[in-house]
Amino acid sequence: MTLSKGDDYPIHQTAEPVAYAGTDRNFYDRYFFNGYAPDGSRFFAVAFGVYPHLDVCDAHFCAIRGDTQHCLHASRKLGMERMNLACGPIRIEVIEPLEKLRIVVEGEGIAADIVFTGRAFPIEEPRFTWRVGPRTMMDYTRLTQNGHYEGWIEIDGRREDLAGNTAGTRDRSWGVRPVGAADPQGAGIGQFFWQWTPVNLPERSLFWHLNAHRDGAAWNSRGVFASDGAVPADFVEYEDGTMNAPPAPGTRWPSGGSLDIGGETFAFEPVGRFQMRGLGYTSPKWGHGLDHGALEVEREDIDLAAVDPARIDNLHVQMICRVTGPDGEQGVGAFEQLAIGPYDPLGLEGIADPAR
User: Fold this and answer.
1) Looking at the domain assignment, is residue 18 inside a domain?
2) What is the pTM of this model?
3) How far is Cα of residue 140 from the mean position of the Cα atoms in its chain?
4) Residues 6+ apart with CB under 8 A from 199
């Protein structure tokens, strides 16, 4: 039987049931959220992924308290039902599509009940298509939206309400990227460079991203300004943003940065660091789409001060940043970076060699 709840909604793109998503085994469909207090503290993040051809669903929730990143991982069999947005102790609810969503967590000493409300209509980022030789490694679309959160997070019995004006970003992406067990005949990534800077400013949102080849030439990049309440016709878009962000010595992590876009300059000052492996990204055990059987749940506590910056699963980070724009405009955002392999503009060599 291939019919699922999705088949009762007018959302089909092909003549097949919703349970099928083309023919590429690496097809995925994912939710992502992050949030932070107005001063950049008390960071949290969520990821929820569906992998139809692998018949796997996984979810992750993380919250930083002091120098510890508390992580909750869960994975289960999908059962070909893509409309069930619960994975063990983590659940997503779509209250109002493209505007309001809820995250509920309850397990392993970690609990939360959080509602996200968008500041403006989501932006649609340019389609990401990346090939290595003849192999299509990525082919996906992402929508991104800044917003505000309300609710609470509890770690080991200590509950904290989200501070007023808790802000952050959420995205939805779907398409093809490497997921699940590695392909034994795969071309291998070799080199990959990614920067992403969604920023919450007082009355507008700034979005900028870059995918680049080894020599720094962009293969996907765009910047967007969206004022509160904006719809796509109101967005101001730029193709020529430039980020100057040298790595911190002994790492590949940004030490800060300066983004020039649309005739404006924004300074990024890190106030914290989040390890993306807590959400499954590059995690050797909890990588996206790996099969853990009917249901597996695990808690992981990461000592952020003890993280080895040269280990490949620690390269992918979000630096929580205080952002200063023209005329003293102050905001907070995440500066995400993943640099695998050589990248000439930053003097990076090898697969994971730190900056000199």
Assistant:
1) no
2) 0.97
3) 14
4) 146, 205, 206, 207, 266, 321, 323, 331, 332, 333
